[in-house]
Amino acid sequence: MQTSGDSESIKSETEQIISEVVTAYVSHASRNADISGVEVKQGDYIGFVGNDVYCDFTSRDMAARTLISRLSVDDYGVLIIFYGGEVPFDEAEKLRADIAKSHKDLEVILLDGGQPVYDYMFVLE
């Protein structure tokens, strides 16, 4: 049985870990806009974290690679890539392999998320 002190320390440690996780996305832009200084065009692929848009490209692959390049991936130990239902495995695997090759100390894991909205979800921990 855990004491309340133990549960508080577990809660605090869990909150600390969660606060350090970054989740980034690549998805189609639903409208034209200027967000975070990036000109977003409807139908393009955008890379974003929360409400901050990092890039806009007509190419899904270019959006994914640019987004990763703008995040501090070397500050993390693990990158989990969930690829969406519209993304071919070969494309996702090439992205995973290229990231792993460029960031030798980063463990890069590829998972079929099958998600319909986000072409890629990147989780850095």
Q: Would you mind describing this structure in some detail?
A:
It is a single chain. This protein has 125 residues and is of the alpha+beta class. It has helices at 4-20, 60-70, 89-102, and strands at 22-28, 33-35, 38-40, 45-49, 52-57, 78-83, 107-112, 118-124. The strands form 2 sheets. Strands 5-4-1-8-6-7 form a 6-stranded mixed beta sheet, covered by helices on one side. It has a two-stranded antiparallel ribbon with strand order 2-3. The radius of gyration is 17 Å and the shape is globular.
Put the structure in a nutshell.
By secondary structure, the protein is of the alpha+beta class. It has helices at 4-20, 60-70, 89-102; strands at residues 22-28, 33-35, 38-40, 45-49, 52-57, 78-83, 107-112, 118-124.
Distance between the termini: 30 Å
Low-confidence stretches: none
The helix count comes to 3
Largest sheet, spatial ordering of strands: 5-4-1-8-6-7
- Order of helix and strand elements from N to C terminus: HEEEEEHEHEE
The percent range for strand residues is 25-35%
Average of pLDDT: 92
Category from helices, strands and their pairing: alpha+beta
Radius of gyration: 17 Å
In helices, the fraction of residues equals 25-40%
Shape: globular
Give the total of beta strands: 8
Biggest β-sheet: count, sense, barrel? 6 strands, mixed
